[in-house]
Amino acid sequence: MFNSHYLAPVQTRFVESQGLSLLTLSAVLPSLGSPDCKNGAKIVMCFPSQFQVLFFFFSLYLVAIAQGGHKPCVLAFGADQFDGQDPKQSQDKSSFFNWWNLVLVGGPAAAVLFLNYIQDNLKWGFGFGIPCISMVIALVVFLMGTRTYRYAIQGHDKNPFVRIGKVFATAAWNWRTTDSVILAEMEAQATPCPESSQQYKFLHKALLAPIGSHGEGAVCRINDVVDAKAVLSVLPICASCLVYATAFAQTFTFFTEQGSTMDRTIWPGFDIPPASLQLFVGFSIIFLIPIYDRFFVPFTRDITGKPSGITMLQRIGIGLFVSIIGMIVAAIVEMKRLRTAKESGLVDKPEATIPMSIWWLVPQYLLVGISDVFALVGLQEFFYDQMPNELKSAGTALYPSIIGVGNLLSSFLIYVLEKTTGGEGHDSWFSDNLNHAHVDYFYWLLAGLSTTGLVSYLYFAKSYIYG
Fold it and tell me: Which domain holds residue 359?
């Protein structure tokens, strides 16, 4: 009765509850093990024991592993509740991805606003205990709906990775086979040609038994070839979005560093933390998703006749374009910040506050949020919709994988630029003194790379055939 899309959220929620429980325990029982105390000049400083450190990080990684499996599976399971063949439910499924992301952003926003205060001003035990109790309640609520859920029927007995891997292996084994031989063999066996036959035609070689083998069991099925084509066709789309993810990574790094040098005073005696501006990304998503779902989609639906208003690929493309605008705005703001530092005589004073309000950074944060509403939500829906049934959860895991790889590419790019633009007595683009750095050059570079990524994306999207 139950499939992996149902069992995985249950299992991962349970594991995450355990991890949060252990985190809470590590906070409320600081006496785990013997602390290492040293006498300082005026006070005695105590450090956690090795067991306490290991216990804490074990709990933390347990939560991280659970979240890695939970988010893609529960998203796929939620989308499974809609019948894609029904026009009304098809509209509702597209809307589901919008509201899913609104909740996904709203939760962390609430955590930043409230849990950080509780952890800093009350107790860390409360800060970890509240999410733990919330996760247990969520698991109970999820299980209460077990009898009412719709469960996707698994169409194959074999592991989907094995089936699709066999297609690529068999096609590679038969790489010398000509198209005429394939057509002749298919006609002799009365085998119909797979859908989208002109795309990735080399995979048709998997319909023949491997050269030198005997027995019909070695021949791949038509549906296996079609599924292999579906997996292969989404990879160029995935690759062309990596630059977008690299630009997205700057939201949590250089944007914050810029803010730390600017005037952050809200009222006398209170300065806003520079990282708090990241909330504007969440706020823009929370504000824009209802507008997109309730106004933009119905308006465009009347024009295009499509259930979701615009196609998934069009939605992603708009998000990539907005991301480019965001990088351009970030570069212009950074140029103004550097100019203000120079005019104020603060170039050689990295600790001084530049007389330029931190609110100048808000537009670039808002543009990041707008690009997320289009690109990230579009990627979620696209990968879920276009992957084979047994790989829906793997498809929904692709979009966070893109973000993860984009962060790695960002670090690698910064490392290369640090080595190539610095040395021999002059500062690199990423000098420790941000007033000597040229992060604006980096933003212009990202805008250029993002434009190249958008062009490649449009090329692949134009030739893409929906499954």
Answer: 241-463
